[in-house]
């Protein structure tokens, strides 16, 4: 099957999926179901996010292509079962986007992004899609990201701190509660207290307009890179982990931190 770049379009991928699912198609593709593809969908989304973080256009293009193909594949599976069609999906999505942007496709006026968000929520509520102010934020989201979004939604109606400094006081309060709980509370209750602390930190990050999920990812990458440098340094010096105590390890760690610029991470 030969494809010319100038003629490639949205439906080119659709035809490829049809071929893969046909009687003489690919055994692996013919075996797939929406349930079996869920894990790959999650992986593809994270690969797109990672590519965006790297700011590499070629990698972003490739990963978005993989994600688009997988989404179309899942849609095709539902069309095979005659549950809905690609045209149904495209039509209903287009209708929804037009309906939720009356300031673009209608007579209404919106002068700021904040106005748009308020109107969007109002329209969703009218559609019966938003029974709660908090919306339907997926419970499967990474916990820090979900904390950020829940705090954001609650903040839209004024249920929020005014300043980041106020959240810091809440964080101190949560830390004190954990200190008091360390020796006299069961593990489940302690888990709850740590959860409260993490939620407060997520809200503090949000008040500073920093996504806590991205902040933690940055910290993890930094730690991972520094730890790998620590491993190399120990090997380079002819030392062994077994013979080094925490004070000696920390000294090498500090040398690594001081020697390498943060931009290297």
From TrEMBL:
Single GO BP term: UTP catabolic process
Record flagged with keyword Iron-sulfur: no
Catalytic activity, reaction form: ATP + H2O = AMP + diphosphate + H(+)
UniProt KW Protease keyword: no
InterPro entries in UniProt: MazG-like_dom, NTP-PPase_MazG-like_C, NTP-PPase_MazG-like_N, NTP_PyrPHydrolase_MazG
Coiled-coil residue windows: 161-188
Gene Ontology MF terms in the entry: ATP diphosphatase activity
Domain (NTP pyrophosphohydrolase MazG-like) ranges: 32-105, 165-227
This protein's UniProt keywords: Coiled coil
Enzyme nomenclature, EC number: 3.6.1.8
Alphabetized Gene3D superfamilies for the sequence: MazG-like (1.10.287.1080)
Signal peptide positions (record): none
Alphabetized PANTHER family for the sequence: NUCLEOSIDE TRIPHOSPHATE PYROPHOSPHOHYDROLASE
NCBIfam families: mazG, PRK09562.1
Family of this protein: Belongs to the nucleoside triphosphate pyrophosphohydrolase family.
Protein name: Nucleoside triphosphate pyrophosphohydrolase
Organism: Thermodesulfobacterium geofontis (strain OPF15)
